[in-house]
Amino acid sequence: MMVCDTGMPGPDTPAITTMLRGLVGQEIVIRGADRDLHSGMFGSAAVNPAHVLTKIIAALHDESGRVTLPGFYDGVEELPAEIKAQWASLPFSEQEFLGKVGLSVPAGEKDRSVLEQIWARPTCEVNGISSGYTGQGFKTVLPAEASAKISFRLVGRQNPDKIVAALQDFVRSQVPVDCKVEFSSHGASPALQLPFNSEPIRIARTALNAEWGKEPILMAMGGSIPIVGNFKRELNMDALMVGFALDDDRIHSPNEKYELKSFQKGTRSWVRILDGLAG
Amino acid sequence: MMVCDTGMPGPDTPAITTMLRGLVGQEIVIRGADRDLHSGMFGSAAVNPAHVLTKIIAALHDESGRVTLPGFYDGVEELPAEIKAQWASLPFSEQEFLGKVGLSVPAGEKDRSVLEQIWARPTCEVNGISSGYTGQGFKTVLPAEASAKISFRLVGRQNPDKIVAALQDFVRSQVPVDCKVEFSSHGASPALQLPFNSEPIRIARTALNAEWGKEPILMAMGGSIPIVGNFKRELNMDALMVGFALDDDRIHSPNEKYELKSFQKGTRSWVRILDGLAG
User: In this structure, what are the phi and psi dihedrals at residue B168, rounded to the nearest 5 degrees?
Assistant: First the structure.
């Protein structure tokens, strides 16, 4: 399968995407008393599900930014040295990447670059959390329940079902006897990791090098292209992903653009790739 | 000042209320990036304010249920032995108290009874927490901000302003450089602790004993009666608080009631108290 719904790290640097991360989404609801309580009449003596939930979430990462769930890193491999070197050579500025959204200091795993974290490392993020009174002003309520939406990005051979089970086991082990916990699943799909050295990729590298005068980057995507995973799972069909989108294309947004250079050289790139594959 | 807006522990047990807890309410907003981010594109590398906030909240209590803020227990005194003995003798069932709201195991400070916790111990409760996407379904958003409403019940001579400062210092010390934090105050009033052995209380004890044939309990209220605190602060006027409300009166609720026995014996009780004070 050939896919051109991917990007390149800069306007002069062609790329082949070989890694798409997987995703696990879980919602957790922790319930205590059978109704919201008056914190002056019950506070401290009655379990507060917001306290229980925050303790659980706080324990999901250790001080070094790693995820603490047992077995979470099973199936995660280090990047090949060649890929690491390629990524290190990219004109990617962590300061600029973070600066565009008002930040300045990389968070997450202390010993990993930003690019490695968003392309090739598994992550765990709280996407939403809610408990008690959240409107304007103040109510001294002791909430009856607390909930969180938590997602994991997966890489390599991480098993989404095992990660769901590890999360649920961990939460259950932390919940006091007076709390009930409920989970709902919002997806559990594995990462897609294509072989770096397959014949089609070798051919695409040669073709892109010929067109752009530059060795293409073997890059990764932080998100996913669901159809690529489906084809892999249902038909065991690998994808060759070569696209020419740029970070500033504003994809799916107002005022979207596509560079003429990407259009013209992209067309020629695919002619070269098809010719190579046919040969 | 004489106040009868208080209760009694049971229909046959008169009480004098000598302790009203104080209250500190603080809202905390932690902000990271300047907009919500895509967790696949920024996850882990960009700071997640929900992670920051949950770590802070989780750290507010230690394993024994005590509040960890430096100096929090300054001004908190142990109950006099006489009061402890009185409370221990009350026909108060922790199982029943918690069972009415669907719970079974006391939470909070491990070495304190439920009654002591709700009447005479300072507490810290999350009243509300919110971050990211909290609607139906799932969004893999990396939230730009996270907020919590947190309240403290105060006892004895705890200083509300110092506790506000201790909380704010603690939060600021935990917030990474890429996060901004904002506080808003929703009240900071001290506890009211009347002397247990003043002349008016001695007179009221005698009067209640005469009317009910039983030594009155010197009880506490988990909540507060703001006007009593105002009179104390502005006029330095103590209150003698003797009321006859029962737990099942459904105060401020539909179908509220007041026992005829409370009305009749309460009237006579106050006649006896006034007579004693006049004497």
Answer: -65, -40
| Chain B residue numbers touching A57 (CB-CB < 8 A) | 50-51, 54, 58
CB of A126 within 8 Å of any CB in chain B?
Answer: yes
C-alpha atoms less than 13 angstroms from C-alpha of A42 in its C-beta half-sphere:
29
The whole-number pLDDT of residue A225 equals 80
Instruction: ipTM value, please give it.
Output: 0.90
Q: Which residues pair with B241 in a beta bridge?
A: B3, B17
Instruction: Take residue B164 and report the two structure tokens written for it.
Output: 């506000």
Contact B30, B57 (CB under 8 A): no
- Scanning the structure block, which residue is given the tokens 């703001």? B226
3-class secondary structure, A245: strand
pLDDT digits (tens, 9 = 90+) for A34-64: 999 988 889 999 999 999 999 999 999 999 9
- B7-36 tens-digit pLDDT: 999 999 999 999 999 999 999 999 999 999
Contact B139 A126 (CB under 8 A): no
DSSP character string of B68-106: -STTTTTT--PPPHHHHHHHHHS---HHHHHHTTT--S-
Minimum-distance CB partner of A130 among B97, B130, B222: B130
pLDDT digits (tens, 9 = 90+) for B148-191: 999 999 999 999 999 999 999 999 999 999 999 999 999 898 99
Q: Which of residues 141-160 of B touch A (CB under 8 A)?
A: 141-143, 146-147, 149, 151, 153
Distance of CA A136 to the CA centre of its chain: 33
The whole-model pTM stands at 0.90
Q: Where do the H-state alpha helices sit in B93-214?
A: 94-99, 114-120, 160-174, 199-212
| pLDDT (tens digit per residue) in A154-208 | 999 999 999 999 999 999 999 999 999 999 999 898 998 888 889 999 999 999 9
Inter-axis angle of helices B49-58 and A49-58, nearest 10: 120
Considering Cα of B94, then B99, then B102, then B103, what sign does the dihedral take?
Answer: positive
- Would you state the structure tokens that stand for residue A233, as one six-digit string? 């799972």
B265 inside 8 A of chain A by CB: no
A27, A126, A127, A112: which is closest to A76 by C-alpha? A112
Round to whole Å and give the CA distance between A223 and B37. Answer: 12
